[in-house]
Amino acid sequence: MRFTNKSEVKIIPSIYIVLVAVFVTNLFVNIEIMASDSEQEITFSHFLPNIATLLLGLYVHRIGQAFDFDSDGETLNFKNNGVFLSKFMEYRVKKAEFPKRKLGKFKFYDVGIYSALTIYINSRRKKGYRKYTFNTTFLNRKKKRGLVDSLNKILENTPKVTA
Hints:
Elements: E1 2-4, H1 12-35, H2 44-63, E2 65-70, E3 75-82, E4 94-99, E5 103-110, E6 115-122, E7 129-135, H3 141-157
Antiparallel strand pairs: 1-2, 2-3, 3-4, 5-6, 6-7
């Protein structure tokens, strides 16, 4: 099975642009208020929209990642990649490619506004498991369910490798 969220993450660059526009506009409004001769003082509430926009921008940057999953063949492939500059370069890349028999276990976290897949891989070099976490926030519900079903099926059908 193959899953990707390329169509869902196309909105992320637009969100970045809107957030930057809101941030810059509010910054200029605050500068205009400070420069005016009125007796209105600058308070914390003037900067609250900028702080909220900055926090929202950091959140969008954190979750704005493309996710690719491929379980065709004998290997499992997982990949996260950044979205904003992905046409020019790969950045924020996290990859895991390994044989299906090495999949030890997985956990899927879904908290509404954030979801992640944590996989544990049997390792010969290290005692125990190696852990990888992939951001799956922009996968739709049907793809998330299919991903979990696919991984459960792999765990049921493959013999375990002892580390």
